[in-house]
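A quick aside before the break. I want you to see a complete sequence-to-structure record at least once, exactly as it would be stored in a machine-readable document. Don't worry about memorizing anything.
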Amino acid sequence: MGERLPPHHQQQAAHQHPDDLKGLKLRVTPDKIRLDTFKALGALPVPMAFAELYSALQQGTVDGQENPLAIIFSSNFFEVQKFLSLTNHVWSSATLVVAKGVWDKVAPRTSRSSRRPPSPGATSSARWSRSRTRTSWPS
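That is the input. The structure line, written in tokens, reads:
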């Protein structure tokens, strides 16, 4: 099982309370739950392709976006947005599913190793990812 860091909002102005979302044009993925959630919070959710997001932020087409920190950082959104709100409004995980017939064919040594606790590298990676939520954003 793996984890996906929670999405966060990044926007052009500081937001600390749900009421601060009122009227904010926020890029969200085009799924009903996110659209309905941000509408209920008073934001103006904008379904938009991810490939268009950087230029939309740069041009002011949207005021902000919500993505996991790793995506925000790797996409350099800090270049076009000044603020980041750590909301932790979503938490999801990834589950590895293997058919029993396939699992039964895996060498015993391999199947035992997959049941061990995470490797130091995986633990270090998770620790680094979490630390990014506690440190200052690049300026």
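Two observations worth writing down. Residues 2-132 form a domain with the D-Maltodextrin-Binding Protein; domain 2 fold (CATH 3.40.190.170). Strands lie at 2-4, 7-11, 25-28, 44-47, 64-68, 83-85, 92-94. We'll return to this after the break.
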